[in-house]
Amino acid sequence: MPLDNEQFRLQSTNRSPDARLDIKAGEFWARGVTSFFDVRVSHVNSQCHQNKATSDIFKEQEAEKKRKYQQRILDVEMGTFMPLVFGTNGGVGDECQKFLKHLAEKLSRKNGEDYATVITWIRTRLSFEILKSVHLCTRGSRSPFRAKDEHIDEFKLNSVTAEVF
């Protein structure tokens, strides 16, 4: 929502009119309350994190996200905010762990599945998605770059080449 001369306690609070969070979920934690989540994936083995424990890195990044968004969400949006911090090593922050547990509980109740099966599925799926994103960042995209006006109709090209009409 746009700001209307709100005064925030923290100077680090995001005041931008274009401020957006990654996920908005109605009634995730409680009925009638909108929840907002911001996702961050961190390379915990990078040189800038060399002498820090993984849990400390996650706590720092969660605190940074809270300083930036939490007060605005509470005061302007009247919702709840939670940062979701993932590590490229497969680890997650404390807040993210709470989120995943609650999500698994909700899904297991809704689908009549065992909690252990659901949380295992979520963690496995997340691990593969993080692995794919790390691989993409490291290797780059496999698809060649084409300008928008260089659109090639692949089906037409292949059917002509194969002489199929």
Plain-language structure description:
The model is unreliable at 155-161 (pLDDT under 50). A three-stranded mixed sheet has the order 1-2-3. The chain has one domain. 45% of the residues lie in helices and 13% in strands. It is built from four helices and three strands. By secondary structure, the chain is an alpha+beta fold.
Q: What is the helix content?
A: 40-55%
The helix count comes to 4
Rounded to the nearest angstrom, the distance between the terminal CA atoms is 55 Å
Strand order of the largest sheet: 1-2-3
Oligomeric grouping of the chains: single chain
User: How many strand segments?
Assistant: 3
Percentage of residues in DSSP E strands: 5-15%
Give the overall shape, derived from the CA principal axes: globular
> What structural class do you assign from the helix and strand content?
alpha+beta
**Low-pLDDT regions:** 155-161
Largest sheet: 3 strands, mixed
Whole-number radius of gyration? 21 Å
The total domain count is 1
Order of helices and strands: EEHEHHH
Rounded mean pLDDT score: 77
